[in-house]
TrEMBL record:
Annotated pathway: Carbohydrate degradation
BP-aspect Gene Ontology terms: pentose catabolic process; pentose-phosphate shunt
Enzyme class, UniProt record, top EC level: isomerase
Catalytic activity reported: D-ribulose 5-phosphate = D-xylulose 5-phosphate
GO cellular component, one term: cytoplasm
Protein's recorded name: Ribulose-phosphate 3-epimerase
Lineage: Bacteria, Pseudomonadati, Pseudomonadota, Alphaproteobacteria, Rhodobacterales
Amino acid sequence: MSFDRSLKIAPSILSADFANFGAEIQAVEAKGADWIHVDVMDGHFVPNITFGPATCAAIRPHIKTVMDVHLMIAPVDPYIEAFAAAGADFITAHVEAGPHIHRTLQAIRATGAKAGLALNPGTPAEAVAPLLDMVDMVCVMTVNPGFGGQKFIHSCVDKVRTLRSLIGDREIHIEIDGGVDPTTAPLVRAAGADVLVAGSAVFRGGSVSNPAPYGENIRAIRASVPS
Ligand code: DX5
Ligand code: ZN
């Protein structure tokens, strides 16, 4: 089978009810989510704190699709085993998180998880060039990481295009994270992205007891993107 570059929508549970992750995950999956994006923040690499491996392990049984763990932490290496043991399918680290990203990617792959590499808005696409044979996904941040609900940074779209041509035929996903909604999704899809993370644009207006808006929001993002 050829590599799957079809559109995948990955709701970020950063915008879900933190007291109800299991039910929130089941609700968005029932309403059409392809992956579940899990934002781990340490209050050091980014100016916000979320949760760690214990929470990831607790929510894992509720995820039937793909558990996509985005580590916004520094250092990364001491915690890779714990996130892999928690059941992450993808573990993404930031190129800016330390001086030894090559080692970090090796360590992620050694656990059996797929390795993702995230780029902040200020980091050029070329930063991934020496690492392309070690990654399964590149995550282009289209906001500065730390918070949901921020405005999409349009100058990042060119970076996605550059990255797509650097990747060529390699089996590497391009993920977009930050400010994705029906107005920005078509721009990044046209530039070559296949995984679209969306927090506020999926969870807005809905809840576990009223999940219909989750489905409408996911369908609106999908419908905005030419197939
Ligand atoms: C930001 C996180 C994102 C965030 C996206 O630091 O990595 O995953 O939840 O949220 P929205 O879609 O609301 O920009
Ligand atoms: Zn994220």
